[in-house]
Amino acid sequence: MRNILILGGGTAGTIMANKLAAALDDKEWRITIVDGTEEHYYQPGFLFVPFGIYRMRDLVKPRRQYLPGNVRFIPSGIDIIDPGTKTVKLTNGTPLKYDYLIIATGANIHPEQTEGLLDEEWGRSKFDFYTPQGAERLSQFLKGWQGGRLVLSITEMPIKCPVAPLEFLFLADEYFTRRGMRDKVELHLITPLSGAFTKPTSSRVLGEFLERKGIRVTPDFDLGRVDSKEKKIVAWDDTEVNYDVLVSIPTNMGDAAIARSGLGNDLNFVATHRETLMAEGLEDVFVIGDATNLPTSKAGSVAHFESEILFQNFLEHIDGRPPIAHFDGHSNCFIESGFDKGMLIDFNYDTEPLPGEFPLPGVGPFTLLGESRVNHYGKLMFRWVYWNLLLRGMELPIEAEMSMAGKRV
Q1: Is pTM beyond 0.90 here?
Q2: Which of 27, 293, 393, 395 is the most buried (most CB within 10 A)?
Q3: Which domains occur in the chain, in start order?
Q4: ∠ CA 205-377-252, rounded to 5°
Q5: pLDDT in tens, 205-242
């Protein structure tokens, strides 16, 4: 019997477990998935918690509920990955042998990486919304906040769901408007990017949208430290921005086991072939989702598109054939823009987000780089799609390869 070991039971790892379990004979194959927690969170929903749109209990389900019965689940952390002996040692010392390894260990925030960010004011005047605890603390704080300067600071790229900071500000604009206190709140985006987003066209469109909503943007800000006493953030060039409340997107890093194993870069992301999704320089190892070092978004849609490619290439690989499927960096993201409207962007390695219609030219129903109510409902509907279709590895109507249909260059 041959062993497939999947490290990480998040979006990417769960999809792959379901796809492989359905395709392989369980008399010949044993699939094991390892993750340190029993809970599976719908992470895109964290964005909505601070504004009372979702509650955390709406976003969490038992991890085992989404794994096939013939997949062994081990609730454990990971200590060391040793590709030389094809062994993974768990935090309790148990060794697991594998024939094929899929690394899906994801990414998490690390506020301790920035001087002064993680101190006694964390959760009091400084918050995140990328974790369950952070989103809930921020929700409680905003309910009683009487106004002032709210600064959203992106520490460095890459981050999970790179449009989420913009969505937070759009929803904050709506939240404070509906509470009748928008004139008492200054919203300010601080970003290391040269504009509102990573690509020129979408950066211009989204930057203009922020401006229309009265949200200030300070680009090219490389955060060096946070001064909690003075309530200010300081860049490496000594530029300062004051805040009354700081919403931080801290440094995002891969799993610490990647660092302990010597397999990652300085942010613990694994070197991955950008098309085949095979780990660079490692035998019988694939990487998927936020764990990769690929120059594409760390988002659920990317994990979905990558899973289609990895699945095809994995089946070729175990039969001794070269990979035939090629990942093009496809990313597809709804952007909640407030007041029951949303945007949509669709892009890949070579093509930036463009205006148009998706998925059908002239029909849509979704609008690319433009606001619509349909986009908003698409964003909300995706939670059902996630739990009932995506995680279970089922076929979805959006192809892994990006299409230019409907896009206006």
Answers
A1: yes
A2: 393
A3: 2-106+255-318 (3.50.50.60), 116-249 (3.50.50.60), 335-390 (no CATH)
A4: 60
A5: 999 999 999 999 999 999 999 999 999 999 999 999 99
